[in-house]
Structure formats: C-alpha cells, structure tokens
Sequence to fold (347 residues):
Amino acid sequence: MGLPCGTFSQNYAQDMAIFRTRWQWITLAGLLVFLFACPLFFSDRILTIMTIIGITIISVHGLNILTGYCGQISIGHAGFMAVGAYTSGILTAKMGWPFWVALPCAALAAGLAGLIFGLPSLKIKGFYLIMATIAAQFIIVWLIIQLRGITGGPDGLAVPRPAIGGFVFKSKSSYFYLVMIVACLATFLAQNIVRTRVGRAFVAIRDNDLAAEVMGINLWRYKLVAFFIGCVYAGVAGSLLVHYFAFASLDHFPFMNSVWYLGMLIVGGMGSIPGAIFGAVSLKLLDELVTIAGPVLSSVVAAQAAASLALISRGVVIMLFLIFEPRGLAHRWERIRAYYRLWPFSH
Fold:
C-alpha cells in the first residue's frame, strides 16, 4: 500500500501495520460509526439488503483466499456454504446446541468438506479442477436430499434464531449488528492471513506452482490449507444465512450463486481484500437496481426480457470488467488514490 509523502517505516512493526496515518484511522472510525449507525436511519428493507451483503462479503473473502490468492479455482462455494448451514441448523434445531457453539462447528464441518474435495487439486488444475468443484456442489446437494430424516431434504429445516441469554436476534437491526461484527472480524482476519507466511506461500503457488515447489513450498499442504480456510469462511456465511431466515433450504444455495461469487471477485479484483468487498457490494446493489428497474422496463419491453434483466446485467458487467478492467475495482481505486496523492505531478 502506498504511503503519503513523509511517512516512513522505521521498524518492522510499522512496516506491517495495516493503518499507518492519522487520516487512515479517522477514515476507519468514520466508516465504523456510519456502519453501526445505519439501523437508526434506514428502513428494514435496506437493513435486509445490507445484512445479505455482509453475509456475502464473508463468503467471498473465503473464495478470495482460495482463488484470488492461492489460484485454486472453485465453483462449488455455495455447496460448502450449505454444509455449514445445515450443520449449524441440525445442531441448534435437533440437538439443542446454542448458536455460538454451532457456528464454529459449522465452520469446521465446511472446512473438513473443503479438505475432502480439495484433494483433487493436488493432481489437477485449471479446467479439471473447475469440474471437480462443480461436482462437489452437486454431491453435497445430493447428500442433503438423501439424508432427509436429518436435514429435512427438499422440505428444508426450521432453525432457531441466535440468542444470548434471554436476548434473541430476531429483529432486523439486531441481526444486522451481529452480521456486521462477524464481517468486520472476517475482513480483519483475512487481511492478516494473506500477510503471513501462509499467505505469501499462497501467492507463490498462484503465480507459479512449479517455482514455488522448487523454493521449498509444500504444495500438498498449502493447497489443502487454502481449501480449508476458504471453506471455513463459507461455513460461517452459510450458518449466518440460515439463522437469519430461521429456515435451512437448498433454495438458499443454488449452483449459480457459486458462479456469481466468482464474478464478484472479477468485478472487485482478485487477490485483494478490498476487492472482495467492492465486488460483493457492487453486484448485490446491481441486483437491487434491477429489481427496481424491472417493473418499469416491463412496460417498455417484453415481460420475459425484463424478468431476465438481472442475469443479463450481471453477465454484461462481468464481461465488461474482464475486457476493460481485468484487475477490478480495487485496482481502479488504488489508481485514483495515487492520482490525487501525487497531483499535480504526473504518475
């Protein structure tokens, strides 16, 4: 990250710090104040949108670590979310466990599933790995349907709301706070993971796995670690999602969600923590814009075309980013910051 003129690193602690200047700390504090003041000013509909965006950000962070940093493409991320969702739902609804115990168990279960389906990455890559992760999505869905006595199968499973003592997170604002706290912690953890030795090994494998192996990086170990961490994030997101709706259903985890999560990384910028946030927020807001514009357009164009507008708009946006801004919004944001930092001098 570029630093303003006159800001220097005098020791390793300063060099590794995420926030260095007073303005950066002020900006962070302002964002947190705005975020946690939202329930005071916004309607329940807007809080619902922001809550879903927060859950999506958690999931996309996991995919970003796996794909953006380690280079292991996965199109089965929604399936791993389903593993965490149903694990948490079964533990709370059928075994009476509290949500705060079921949540880490859901993350662990999704991580273990990621380890199992990540084993093919030790031998295959590229298109073949994509097909393997697609298979994981459908295998997980098939298992959930077959275990209908435990999971509810196609009928779904009612799950309780999270609670602390006698306080139940059943209002839109209370659950918004819960999701945003977890999303902030997930973002902070992801930022620190990619700065560790493990994170640097991920980047080396992504850039050139043969060169990484020659340098002594254990590909077998770090690829599986990437799958485990990425799926742990997916498990947390899945658990939060089903407890928000108080119902676990396969309709919450369609295959196309896995594709759109990858599209969010393309739009936001792969291999960038802010990119995961930019991509999730951008495509989710695009969906809401299309929802508003759809009824208006249905009076101008065919109703079928208006109903397909969401898929068309997402596809067009992803395609435009692949052509004109392949490094995503995060790269464009860095360019804008650098321009204003150096203005009026050329960059």
Summary: The chain has a mean pLDDT of 88. The longest strand covers residues 157-158. Strands lie at 157-158, 163-164, 167-168, 247-248. The chain is about 75% helix and 0% strand.
